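Practice problem 4.
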């Protein structure tokens, strides 16, 4: 069995126990607050040793101390009452289309869950004293709309939320001391202030690591010990080129450890997998199962992933879709139950009534007893029995019951209890305060150490409610990794250099360790790349070079005018996207958010213009324009499908806020005499490619054509900031769409105009006329300039006489082919 690493750094838990050993305290009158439940289990073992040494009776009985874990203090005290609150809130939210428009029922349940979680935190702030509550109200009087909703929710459900704050099972008068091992979670402090204001508190803050110096010290402590040299095994970093190789490397590492410790017993054979990448964890579990190695998974999978939960979901879905359940399969064997009569209930009921009906149905068909024989099945039955006790009066349809069931199954955690394995998988944060032997850290990318605050509130407000901000959350994870590397004996880190085809950079702190190794020749840091596959960051050292196919085979049968923007930005991107073309990287079901946003705004502006051009409309009144825009926005919104509404929902609040500005800009242009003539006008033409020997068909749709007498204005609506639009207008060759429309429409005197709509900016941005030099060359308008320029450049592009070259820069943003063409290699390596 391997020996612990002598790092010279005390475990904070050891420090706490050393302090306690020197105090004349009765262990039965001390409350310990630990960061995570996994640390509590190890603490009990160490505590027993301390107490046995104090009593001088190594084999004598030792009473267990009182323990609370910080991650459990914020959980509701009564799950059934919490469910009743959610059910009532869901029924309220469903009646607020402006707040939940476009959300499905499961999404409404998730929204209610998040609102209540935030409101519970707000209740903690209020319960912590009038001063802190007054400070919160004063500093958040003008927070986001959702913040106001949460604040009002905390007021409306104040009594119910107050009852959900978990009170301790031990009375304050039964305690002489509280020992708090603080990992930066603020809620234990509020909890102590509320329930134990008079009890002395010994607070031991766990280290919070930030900056390079701590890592320099760690490297020196772990591997340098005077003339004796290194005193600890190396820390190995495995760099995998993709997700599959990552899983294989992690599995091979664990199998090798199991083989090397086959003759060990006890802690030496214990292997901990600290998980930061959940997808990689699932792949690892499947690979180990193939070689007969089970994993004791403590990461907390959702109950919805269990087979029995899937069976129940399918049963309820059949009922919702068909109106009855006429096919009953056994939840464990899958066999069809013979002679099972169809079951159906119609109408709306409370969740308690539905739950009773479902339990009766399972009992009547002999399925309830079978479910109770399975671990996941017992949780499913327990869930229905809890729902049966709900006191909520809200009525739900069958579809509403299915949504409630799915929400519960997503919230409930499930871990098979029959797995006994030396390989234990835990979240990284659960390794704190523990001495571990063999440790595999799964996921070491910089992105794994980034966290965002809750999505409903601004970061400052969320942090005031006790949620760690992005910086604090990153420090907590870094501190857990740092502590693990200090305490563990054998450590392997597994990093995947790309995920879903996109690069993943290694955690900067681990890069520092590699630089230290190179500078000082420390022998304890080993980087092991996969020898069977080429790494992403080592391949394609030269930029991708492609040419058009001969005989004009690369010329597309039809090209959209908007595609010319791609050519102006990056010829290689244009070729891969429109001439090869590059395989699509996403499903083509629903339109994308930018497409749907454009469709929405185009329809609203067109319909509003038609409405305002009707006889008798008072067009010099701004309120008339605002009303018309709002009416048409509502009409277009309600004409969208539910999925489209859900996708477009974030933009609707922005557009509603911008309606006065849009109305002002449109009315001002109307009073100048401009009238909308057509919208979404289709234009077609063919660009001659003389050297290539073909004509390139072009087509497009003009957003708006406005007229002022004999004058024409070609308008393109853009959702870009005003400075970007001004730059585009000043450089027409980099934004050729409007000039090409001018050429295809054969309207040399037409005005070219952008209408910019972006957050708080709504403005008309005209495209200036060509320079005097261009006019003297016979190119009197931008249509002629762009037509002639692209006729030459696209002819050379499709003639197969030159390579398609990448243009590194802004064009690489969101480009599907960016990490294949490797344009960054053209920039050279910095000194």
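Answer key:
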């Amino acid at each position: 069995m391997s020996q612990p690493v002598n790092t010279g750094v005390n475990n904070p838990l050891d420090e706490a126990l050393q302090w306690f050993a020197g105090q004349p305290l009765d262990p039965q009158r001390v409350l310990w607050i630990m960061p995570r439940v996994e640390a509590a289990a190890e603490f009990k073992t160490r505590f027993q040793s301390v107490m046995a040494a104090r009593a001088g009776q190594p084999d004598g009985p030792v009473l267990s101390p009182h323990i609370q874990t910080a991650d459990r203090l914020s959980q509701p005290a009564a799950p059934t009452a919490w469910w009743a609150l959610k059910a009532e809130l869901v029924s309220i939210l469903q009646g607020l289309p402006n707040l939940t428009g476009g959300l499905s029922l499961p999404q409404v349940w998730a929204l209610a869950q998040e609102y209540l979680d935030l409101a519970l935190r707000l209740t903690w702030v209020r319960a912590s004293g009038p001063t802190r509550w007054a400070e919160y109200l004063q500093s958040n009087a003008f927070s986001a709309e959702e913040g106001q909703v949460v604040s009002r929710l905390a007021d409306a459900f104040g009594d119910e939320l107050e009852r959900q704050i978990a009170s301790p099972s031990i009375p304050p008068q039964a305690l002489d001391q509280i020992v708090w091992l603080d990992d930066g979670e603020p809620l234990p402090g509020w909890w102590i202030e509320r329930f134990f204001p008079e009890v002395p508190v010994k607070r031991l803050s766990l280290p919070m690591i930030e900056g390079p110096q701590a890592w320099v010290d760690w490297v020196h402590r772990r591997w340098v010990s005077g003339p004796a040299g290194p005193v600890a095994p190396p820390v190995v970093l495995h760099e995998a080129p993709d997700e599959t190789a990552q899983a294989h490397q992690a599995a091979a590492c664990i199998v090798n450890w199991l083989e090397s410790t086959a003759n060990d017993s006890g802690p030496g054979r214990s292997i901990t997998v600290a998980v930061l990448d959940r997808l990689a964890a699932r792949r690892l579990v499947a690979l180990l199962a193939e070689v007969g190695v089970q994993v004791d998974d403590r990461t907390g999978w959702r109950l919805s992933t269990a087979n029995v939960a899937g069976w129940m979901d399918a049963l309820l879905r059949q009922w919702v879709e068909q109106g009855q359940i006429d096919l009953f399969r056994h939840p464990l064997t899958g066999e069809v139950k013979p002679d099972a009569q169809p079951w159906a209930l119609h109408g709306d009921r409370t969740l308690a009534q539905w739950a009773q009906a479902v339990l009766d149905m399972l009992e009547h068909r002999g399925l309830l007893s079978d479910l109770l024989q399975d671990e996941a099945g017992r949780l499913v039955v327990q869930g229905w029995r809890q729902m049966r006790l709900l006191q909520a009066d809200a009525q739900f349809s069958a579809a509403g019951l299915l949504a409630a069931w799915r929400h519960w199954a997503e919230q409930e955690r499930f871990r098979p209890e029959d797995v006994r394995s030396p390989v234990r998988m835990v979240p990284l944060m659960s390794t704190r305060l523990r001495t571990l032997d063999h440790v595999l850290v799964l996921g070491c990318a910089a992105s794994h150490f980034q966290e965002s605050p809750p999505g409903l509130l601004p970061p400052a407000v969320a942090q005031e409610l006790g949620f760690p901000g992005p910086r604090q959350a990153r420090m907590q994870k870094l501190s857990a990794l740092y502590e693990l590397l200090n305490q563990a004996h054998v450590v392997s880190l597994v990093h995947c250099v790309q995920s879903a085809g996109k690069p993943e950079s290694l955690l900067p702190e681990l890069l520092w360790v590699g630089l230290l190794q190179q500078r000082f020749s420390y022998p304890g840091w080993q980087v092991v790349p996969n020898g069977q596959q080429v790494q992403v960051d080592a391949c394609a050292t030269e930029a991708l070079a492609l040419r058009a196919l001969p005989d004009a085979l690369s010329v597309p049968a039809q090209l959209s005018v908007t595609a010319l923007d791609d050519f102006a930005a990056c010829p290689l991107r244009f070729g891969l996207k429109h001439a090869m073309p590059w395989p699509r990287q996403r499903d083509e079901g629903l339109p994308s958010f930018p497409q749907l946003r454009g469709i929405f705004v185009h329809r609203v502006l067109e319909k509003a213009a038609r409405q305002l051009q009707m006889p008798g409309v008072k067009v010099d009144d701004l309120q008339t324009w605002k009303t018309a825009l709002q009416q048409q926005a509502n009409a277009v919104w309600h004409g969208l499908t539910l999925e489209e509404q859900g996708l477009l929902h974030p933009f609707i609040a922005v557009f509603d806020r911008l309606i006065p500005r849009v109305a002002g800009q449109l009315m001002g242009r109307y009073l100048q005499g401009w009238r909308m003539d057509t919208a979404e006008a289709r234009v077609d033409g063919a660009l001659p490619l003389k050297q290539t020997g073909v004509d390139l068909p072009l087509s497009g749709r003009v957003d708006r054509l406005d007229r002022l007498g004999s004058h024409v204005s070609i308008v393109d609506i853009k959702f870009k900031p005003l400075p970007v639009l001004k730059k585009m207008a000043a450089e027409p060759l980099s934004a050729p769409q409007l000039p090409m429309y001018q050429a295809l429409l054969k309207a040399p005197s037409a005005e070219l105009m952008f209408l910019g709509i972006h957050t708080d900016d709504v403005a008309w941005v005209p495209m200036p006329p060509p320079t005097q030099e261009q006019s003297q060359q016979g190119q009197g308008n931008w249509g002629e300039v762009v037509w002639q320029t692209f006729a030459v450049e696209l002819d050379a592009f499709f003639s197969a006489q030159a390579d398609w070259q990448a243009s590194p820069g802004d064009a690489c943003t969101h480009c599907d082919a960016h990490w294949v063409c490797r344009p960054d290699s053209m920039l050279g390596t910095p000194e």
